[in-house]
């Protein structure tokens, strides 16, 4: 396997290139109006340094709008204070950064080709390399740099050097005007530098570095809040469903108890109605008393019916098979027969019977 392909720097460059391509493709899917609204990385307030004046511009995307042209005289600081928007506190994180733009022709450009491994310590390497490239002493210059190309073996860097004195004069003027500079750049349209030594306000510079991540961070927070909201709604629904299930189970248990009590009550009502009916019918009471005397001691009835001259007996007995002969031999009953086969009773040795007999004429 080719060892060059395994170098961390190469894989990192490929990963960053893929990320830039993927972000561009995602941005292309957005509507133009939304894409323009989310494009905040290039928006800024520019203070363009000209030989005889300062030009304050508002840059929004690719459009620059001139706010003011301020002559470089004794009143320049006061005019800058009025022309450049100020933001404090939390608003500073969402306000446009203020960038001081220096004339590109005032810089000394030096192309450098360094080993690919220099990317890991590029700032430290250029601190020593700028001494060799500058005609002035290191204490008298500022510099910045931008990585132009990165190959497998080499790293191409564009180094720009400028005298410190004019830069310090402009930076001090901005500080006197209460302006926090986020960066100092060159007005050559080459884009933001990857690093350098230009003086800038530390807090404003941090905000500027964070700005490309601001919208994704806010989007992630919104997504996190939405997920949290959905999770809370789901958990609340689960809790409500569990509480409802508990209530349903409790109601079902109560209903079962009520149903059992109702069945007992219905049985008691039937027995009470049967007894009341028998009390109203003296003949039925007499027949029932006669049946009770004939039945063996181990037999008992759970249902008694009297329909005309037919008596229907339902009960249990250990000698159920002998009941037919017992009733046929009685002077009060005749034609005894089982209406259903004998069945096993609730206890061993007992049989359930369904017996019908006829009253003999003249029996009471």
Helix count, DSSP H or I runs of 4 or more residues: 9
The percent of residues in helical segments reads: 40-55%
Name of the top-level CATH class of the largest domain: Alpha Beta
Uncertain residue segments: 1-8
Fold and architecture overview:
The chain contains nine helices and 14 strands. The protein has three domains: 1-38; 42-200, Nucleotidyltransferase, domain 5 (2-Layer Sandwich); 281-359, 2-Layer Sandwich (Gyrase A, domain 2), CATH 3.30.1360.100. The chain has helices at residues 8-29, 32-38, 76-83, 91-94, 122-133, 164-176, 202-280, 282-294, 323-328; strands at residues 44-49, 53-60, 63-71, 98-102, 108-115, 141-150, 154-163, 183-186, 195-196, 300-307, 310-317, 333-338, 343-344, 351-359. The strands form three sheets. It has a five-stranded mixed beta sheet. Strands 10, 11, 12, 13 and 14 form a five-stranded antiparallel beta sheet that branches. A four-stranded antiparallel beta sheet has the order 5-7-6-9. With 364 residues, it is α+β, with helices and mostly antiparallel strands.
């Amino acid at each position: 396997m080719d060892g060059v392909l395994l170098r961390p720097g190469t894989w990192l460059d490929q990963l960053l290139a893929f990320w830039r391509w993927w972000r561009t493709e995602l941005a292309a899917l957005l509507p133009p109006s939304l894409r323009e609204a989310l494009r905040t990385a290039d928006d800024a307030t520019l203070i363009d340094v000209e030989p005889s004046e300062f030009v304050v511009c508002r840059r929004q995307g690719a459009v620059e709008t001139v706010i003011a042209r301020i002559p470089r005289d004794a009143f320049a600081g006061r005019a800058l204070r009025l022309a450049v928007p100020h933001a404090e506190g939390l608003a500073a994180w969402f306000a446009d950064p203020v960038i001081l733009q220096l004339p590109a022709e005032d810089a000394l450009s030096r192309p450098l080709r360094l080993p690919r491994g220099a990317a890991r310590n590029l700032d430290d390497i250029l601190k020593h390399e700028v001494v060799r490239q500058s005609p002035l002493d290191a204490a008298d210059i500022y510099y910045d740099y931008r990585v132009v190309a990165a190959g497998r073996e080499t790293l191409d860097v564009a180094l720009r050097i400028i005298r410190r004195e004019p830069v310090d004069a402009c930076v001090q003027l901005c500080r006197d005007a209460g302006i926090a500079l986020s960066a100092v750049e060159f007005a050559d349209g080459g884009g933001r530098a990857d690093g350098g030594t230009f003086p800038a306000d530390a807090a404003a510079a941090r905000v500027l570095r964070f700005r490309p991540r601001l919208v994704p961070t806010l989007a992630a927070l919104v997504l996190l809040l939405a997920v949290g909201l959905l999770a809370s709604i789901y958990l609340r629904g689960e809790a409500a469903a569990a509480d409802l299930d508990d209530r349903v189970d409790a109601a079902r248990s109560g209903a079962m108890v009520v149903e059992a009590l109702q069945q007992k009550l219905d049985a008691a009502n039937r027995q009470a109605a049967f007894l009341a009916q028998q009390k109203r019918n003296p003949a039925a009471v007499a027949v029932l008393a006669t049946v009770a005397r004939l039945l063996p001691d181990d037999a008992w009835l759970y249902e008694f019916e009297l329909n005309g001259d037919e008596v229907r007996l339902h009960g249990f007995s250990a000698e159920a098979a002998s009941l037919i002969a017992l009733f046929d031999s009685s002077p009060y009953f005749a034609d005894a027969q089982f209406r259903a086969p004998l069945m096993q009773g609730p206890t061993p040795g007992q049989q359930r019977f369904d017996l019908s007999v006829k009253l003999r004429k003249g029996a009471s």
